[in-house]
Amino acid sequence: MKTSSSILSILSMFLLLSISLVASDSAFDNFLQCLPKHSHLSNPIADAIYTPNNSSFQSLYQLRANNLRILSSATSKPLAIITALHESHAQATVVCAKLHGLQIRIRSGGHDYEGLSYTSDVPFVILDLFNLRSIQIDMTSETAWVQAGATTGELYYQIAEKSKVHGFPSGVCTTLGIGGHFSGGGYGPLMRKYGLSIDNVIDAQLIDANGRILNRKSMGEDVFWAIRGGGGTSFGIILSWKIKLVRVPAKVTVFNVQRTLDQGATDLAYRWQQVAPKLPKDLFLRLEPAPITGTGNGNKTIQVSFIGHFLGQTGRLIQLMNANFPELGLQQSDCIEMSWVESTLFWAGFPNGTSIDILLDTVQDDRVFYKTKSDYYKKVIPKEGLETLWEVLMDIEDIFIQLNPYGGRMEEISESETAFAHRAGNLFKVQYTVLWSESDGGIGAAERYIEMSRRLYSAMAPYASSNPREAFLNYRDLDIGSNESNNTDFAVAKVYGAKYFKNNFLRLASVKAMVDPDNFFKNEQSIPPLPMPSH
Questions:
Q1: Under 8 Å CB-to-CB from 375, ≥6 apart: which residues?
Q2: Catalytic residue positions?
Q3: pLDDT at 8
């Protein structure tokens, strides 16, 4: 009797799974038939649709999947990739996916650290925006419209083509998709002078859950507030941003001064925390500690890089550094003068003298497996805390850490002015990234490396921000809380929402309820609609 009931149970489960798969197939077929009906006849969508039957589907899927850890562990692939060639293709994808019960993941550059732009555990399609990459610059008004699929490198290149004395505050990596990068905040070496990317955005185009294209006026100030720092994919699909270009001198100065522990790196790193957030706005000084093998004895040590960017020339920079941070001992020979666009290559790690044409390379070639976490620091890490950090770094070895100073313009903007809440009161933000390759064990080594990143994060807890322990959305980290692919639990979202958005989370949830009450746009760390109060 027990045996026959077990068989019946298994058969029932199999039948339910079969029905689910058939329903999924049916929904997908209906989705594909729906697309041409909702896109312009003058711009046929057929050429933008890739399914697993296309020979190039797999390579297209992988091309902009930046993290090999995610790509190698993904258990399900998209039913289709829609490589929108026209805005109407993106609109049709929204309308048809919603109509037929499929989830959309939105990818512009593929740099989501947890791969949420190209993975899901439920039937989904990827709306890939890389073809929507136009950049229209108007030097008369010093503004530009930039489509979501353009990269930071392409933006820098096109600004430089128009002007030698304009730039834009944005990321160091040159293959970031503008759509996602800006919506999480967007920062780089101009942040202390001009704030974040979103602090220089003056309009946007957004496709809402009904497939309508809205601009700042038609979406309203609440939605425009939310997409600047709140992550665009909770509210719709960012098609383009209108940005205000910023003024830069014809020549800027950069330097990278390195000191080991034997050369007083601990004392210098301690002093850096007190100095870097208070330097003049024109000077950005990043700190990067790295484990190395010492010369001579072969023992491990730490080398700390002090990497600077000054909106001015060497003479004035030396004066400022001697007045504010003489302990570093910056010399004229450490400094390199170059144009602003050339400095974007310096920050991206290209050798001095590299052609700026490399900014037009839109896909990162040297991909690795990685796990990233982030922290904000409101107090100086004591020397014993730095020594703890050095010990963990030397133990892990395969690690990349950046400490980015705040202060300057970041102090002046209220945490409620945009959805990006990490403003005054922060000394610096930290990115911790453990990284490894196939030769280190590939996906099989992921658990070990992830555990290392958690150990480092735990070791720095006594010194980082707390209640909540704040985190940066663009350094996405599912460890701080996440939902299932298709279910956004509000209580869970409040946990990660407080860390990413602080007191702005509830307003974001309120905006979500206005613009997407059915929660069509969702992922594992999206913002849910604010629940209606029960009576």
A1: 429, 430, 432, 457, 460, 464, 465, 469, 470, 471
A2: 475
A3: 47
